[in-house]
């Protein structure tokens, strides 16, 4: 049950979680972890379902394939289960912030949720696009109503994500161009009003000011935790990210404009991390170094936003 131990390396924590998940006594859990008693088929299915891992992985079967999972999520009005999962993500970040080597890296062709979460209208536009591509009914921007619970989770996520000791962002050079074009399109079909467009525009300009402050100092202003900003010289077709911690790693591929497929598979995560780090070769770092590129980038983005 190596995958079980990798999920929660601290034995005492793992035992408590397994007791609650499988409704077993402490000694029964210890017998299973010592391989004196095998996990039943039902118990393995329960673990695979709860931890979003494949039965092949949990049974230690090597079939020569690497499994990715996907968790669907209603980000506008999450169910109790979805809200609990989002709270779990926040708690996990709170936990790993205590390890100095913890690192988050995102290669993106659209603004990531870590940044969107701090801007109400910009975040709402992201969710509006998400709903527009998810529902058959066409809902105007003004009709998007985000639950109070989701707003609370979003604010908490925006706070806690800055606790990560090391963060790297590699942006597509046209990341704001794509955003402006999306807004212009929805304005042209009257799903966003002129007034709403101005609110979104202000949020984008505020975000640019915030990103420039990060780029100037190389850190989040609130926590002073390290942030490196890069601009890719190549087009980024799909978003990728990984989270590295001493207790476990995970890699993501962002799909369908709203979800992620992910894997805990150690070999895949190692390859993923190495590949993503290599993308810095075709990118220009604008945080702390290369003042000229930094000034030119932000000046160009502001001109784009003003064209709205």
Biggest sheet details: 8 strands, mixed
Number of strands: 8
Helix content: 40-55%
The overall average pLDDT, rounded, is 84
Order of helices and strands: HHHHHEHEHHHEHHEEEEHEH
How much of the sequence lies in strands comes to 5-15%
Provide the low-confidence segments as ranges.
none
Describe the structure.
The protein is α+β, with helices and mostly antiparallel strands and 308 residues long. It folds into two domains: 2-59, 434 Repressor (Amino-terminal Domain); 72-306, no CATH class. It has helices at 2-7, 11-22, 26-33, 41-51, 55-59, 80-96, 113-116, 120-132, 148-160, 175-188, 194-217, 266-278, 291-306; strands spanning 69-70, 103-108, 166-172, 226-232, 239-244, 250-255, 259-263, 283-285. The protein has an eight-stranded mixed beta sheet with strand order 1-7-6-5-2-3-4-8, covered by helices on one side. A hairpin with a 5-residue loop joins strand 5 (239-244) and strand 6 (250-255). Helix 8 packs across helix 11 and helix 11 (194-217) packs antiparallel against helix 13 (291-306). It starts with a helix and ends with a helix. The model has no long low-confidence stretch (mean pLDDT 84).
How are the elements arranged and paired?
Blueprint: H1 2-7, H2 11-22, H3 26-33, H4 41-51, H5 55-59, E1 69-70, H6 80-96, E2 103-108, H7 113-116, H8 120-132, H9 148-160, E3 166-172, H10 175-188, H11 194-217, E4 226-232, E5 239-244, E6 250-255, E7 259-263, H12 266-278, E8 283-285, H13 291-306
Parallel strand pairs: 2-3, 3-4
Antiparallel strand pairs: 1-7, 2-5, 4-8, 5-6, 6-7
Helix pairs in contact: 6-9, 8-11, 11-13
């Amino acid at each position: 049950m190596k995958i079980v131990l990798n999920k929660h390396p601290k034995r005492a924590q793992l035992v408590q979680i397994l007791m609650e998940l499988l409704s077993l006594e402490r000694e029964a859990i210890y017998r299973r972890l010592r391989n004196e008693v095998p996990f039943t088929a039902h118990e393995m299915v329960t673990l695979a379902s709860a931890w979003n891992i494949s039965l092949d992985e949990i049974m230690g079967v090597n079939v020569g394939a690497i499994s990715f999972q996907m968790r669907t999520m209603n980000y506008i009005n999450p169910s109790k289960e979805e809200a609990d999962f989002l709270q779990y993500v926040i708690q996990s970040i709170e936990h790993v912030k205590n390890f100095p080597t913890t690192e988050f890296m995102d290669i993106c062709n659209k603004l990531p949720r870590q940044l969107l979460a701090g801007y109400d209208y910009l975040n709402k536009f992201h969710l509006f696009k998400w709903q527009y591509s998810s529902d058959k009914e066409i809902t105007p921007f003004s009709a998007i109503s985000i639950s109070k619970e989701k707003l609370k989770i979003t604010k908490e996520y925006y706070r806690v994500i800055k606790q990560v000791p090391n963060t790297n962002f590699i942006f597509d050079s046209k990341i704001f161009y794509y955003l402006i074009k999306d807004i212009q399109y929805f304005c042209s079909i009257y799903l966003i009003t002129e007034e709403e467009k101005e609110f979104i525009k202000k949020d984008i300009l505020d975000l640019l000011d915030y990103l420039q402050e990060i780029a100037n100092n190389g850190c989040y202003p609130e926590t002073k935790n390290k942030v490196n900003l890069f601009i890719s010289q190549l087009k980024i077709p799909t978003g990728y990210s990984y989270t590295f911690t001493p207790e476990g790693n995970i890699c993501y591929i962002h799909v369908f404009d709203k979800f992620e497929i992910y894997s805990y598979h150690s070999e895949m995560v190692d390859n993923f991390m190495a590949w993503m780090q290599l993308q810095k070769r075709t990118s220009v770092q604008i945080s702390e170094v290369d003042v000229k590129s930094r000034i030119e980038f932000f000046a160009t983005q502001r001109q784009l936003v003003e064209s709205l």
